[in-house]
Design brief:
Keywords: Elongation factor, Mitochondrion, Protein biosynthesis. This protein is mainly α. It has helices at residues 2-15, 20-25, 44-57, 61-70, 75-89, 91-98, 126-129, 132-158; strands spanning 104-112, 115-123. The protein is built from 8 helices and 2 strands. A hairpin with a 2-residue loop joins β1 and β2 (115-123).
């Protein structure tokens, strides 16, 4: 109890003539405000900037929007920022790999009862297809496909067609 009294005395002494009750009723103002950065307004001009940046660079909508927000809506700066991010995070490497042909791979065959599943999983080189993890992937894909087919078969077996004739 004495600690509470000393705290009251300290508050009155620090604030001067303000009574303690009025100090406790005042809501404290926040000292810090958080700002996540400039936001683009939903205006037509910002949408046009976003579409123009996306057309010029070919990067995703999300990345273009982030670039415009970071650069305050400046199209040239946003393009520069996007290219730097692409080099830093390897976006261009993924784009280069997109056109490569997958000529090798494995075919998985799984039979259970009257149901047979045939899956083909492709890769770029024969070294990958010899890998144990790749072979396990083909097995898992075949098994998943089999389970999907059996669930469809079960759904179709519960379906019954009724012929209703008018008499």
């Amino acid at each position: 109890m004495s600690l509470l009294r000393s705290l009251r005395v300290f508050l009155v002494a620090r604030t001067g003539s303000h009574p303690v009750g009025s100090l406790l009723r005042q809501s404290p103002q926040p000292r810090h405000t958080f700002h996540a950065g400039p936001r683009l307004s939903a205006s037509a001009s910002s949408k046009e900037l976003l579409m123009k940046l996306r057309r010029n660079t070919g990067y995703s909508f999300v990345n273009c929007k982030k670039a415009l927000e970071t650069c305050g809506g400046d199209l040239k700066q946003a393009e520069i920022w996007l290219h730097k991010q692409a080099q830093k995070e390897g976006w261009s490497k993924a784009a280069k790999l997109q056109g490569r042909k997958t000529k090798e791979g494995l075919i998985g065959l799984l039979q259970e009862g009257n149901t047979t599943v045939l899956v083909e999983v492709n890769c770029e080189t024969d070294f990958v297809s010899r890998n144990l993890k790749f072979q396990q992937l083909v097995q898992q894909v075949a098994l998943g496909t089999m389970m999907h087919c059996q669930s469809l078969k079960d759904q179709l077996s519960t379906y019954s067609k009724e012929n209703w004739e008018k008499t």
